[in-house]
Amino acid sequence: MFKFQKSKKIAVAMSGGVDSSVAAFLLKEKGADIFGLTMQAGPFHQQAAQRARVICRKLGIGHYVFDLKKIFRRKIINPFLKKYCESQTPNPCVECNARIKFGSLLERAREKGADYLATGHYVRQEKKEGIYILRKALFSKKDQSYFLHRLTQKQLSSAIFPLGCYSKEKVKKIAQNNNLFFEDQKESQDICFLPQGDYRTLLREDISFSKNSGKFKDLEGNVLGEHQGLPFYTIGQRKNLISGQKQPFYVLEINRKNNEIIIGPKRFLYKKELRFRDAHWTNLDLVEKVKKDLFSVRRIKAKIRSQHSAAQIEKIEFSNNFKEGRAEFKNLQRAITPGQSVVFYFQDRILGGGFISE
């Protein structure tokens, strides 16, 4: 169960959705001094601000809206597009949590007198021996710990996650029983600034990025067709490739040097090994023990994307500063994709993670 000091003020990041609304409700029920705040990062957040205002009025709490459009564009959208143009597949929600929600938004919350920032993420947190530890949500089906692995100890010291021990079904029931639910409520999508669900639309609208066409080739180097531009493809993609093949083909490799995309049968998507960079460790003490073999590495699991089931690690190596490394899985993993985050777990605790480089 989440803990807080009643003498402290808590800002709740409100999206107008069920999760953040119930997070605010639970805090108020426990006697917390709370107010809501919503970020405006683009037209896609306009309805969020309106609905959050309605929810805050029902709860009888204050509500503030902050314009973070320029910051969001600079820190999230532009790097998102740039990484696709570098043949990587980014996960902007990971960066948004670390740089926007628990960065710029937390700063705004403090300006309004808040000591903590609460969100509707399904994740648990505890403090042990002076270290803040992130743990998976009690109900793994909704666990969102993957998206929070880059939070620092300082950020975690100001974070509250009221929903970590609740199931989604329970949260929905609380919302319905307390009139915190809109009739046309939909489950929020991962990437808020892609209302159509396709990043390619955003790429086509942005003239600053090169989208030169090139060749599709098979594993033997045979030309099979022409692609629209490297940024429009990602490892493991099946749609919008070429037609007329006896079996489905998938993107296996994106070759920036030659402006080529290697495609082939699904079986070639599976690998056991990856390299990672720019790592951030929530629990560095535990990582150091793993490196020194004080804990068996076979007790470590890793996720290579948010919807991936954590898989057993066979071997892991770190650079001297722990910023880079190599991991080997016990079993083959499908579509290990550069740009995505690999997140490591010790039982239900997050160790941290980095960006997949190859």
Overview of this protein structure:
- The two termini are 39 Å apart.
- This protein has three domains: 9-177, 3-Layer(aba) Sandwich (Rossmann fold); 210-264, Roll (SH3 type barrels); 271-356, Elongation Factor Tu (Ef-tu), domain 3, CATH 2.40.30.10.
- The protein has a six-stranded antiparallel β-barrel with strand order 12-15-14-13-16-17.
- β5 (123-128) and β6 (131-136) form a beta hairpin.
- The mean pLDDT is 91.
- The protein has eight helices and 17 strands.
- α1 (18-29) packs parallel to α2.
- The chain has helices at residues 18-29, 46-59, 69-85, 92-111, 153-156, 168-177, 199-205, 284-291, and strands at residues 9-13, 33-40, 63-67, 116-118, 123-128, 131-136, 159-160, 214-217, 223-227, 250-255, 260-264, 270-281, 300-303, 311-318, 325-334, 341-346, 349-356.
- The protein is an alpha/beta fold and 358 residues long.
Query: Tally the helices: what do you get?
Result: 8
Name the CATH superfamily classification of the largest domain: HUPs
Based on CA atoms alone, the radius of gyration comes out at: 22 Å
Q: How far apart are the first and last residues' alpha carbons, in Å?
A: 39 Å
Mean pLDDT equals 91
* Spatial strand sequence of the major β-sheet: 12-15-14-13-16-17
As for the number of domains, it is 3
- Based on DSSP secondary structure assignment, what is the total number of beta strands? 17
How is the topology of this model organized?
Blueprint: E1 9-13, H1 18-29, E2 33-40, H2 46-59, E3 63-67, H3 69-85, H4 92-111, E4 116-118, E5 123-128, E6 131-136, H5 153-156, E7 159-160, H6 168-177, H7 199-205, E8 214-217, E9 223-227, E10 250-255, E11 260-264, E12 270-281, H8 284-291, E13 300-303, E14 311-318, E15 325-334, E16 341-346, E17 349-356
Parallel strand pairs: 1-2, 1-4, 2-3, 4-7, 8-11
Antiparallel strand pairs: 5-6, 8-9, 10-11, 12-15, 12-17, 13-14, 13-16, 14-15, 16-17
Helix pairs in contact: 1-2, 1-6, 3-4
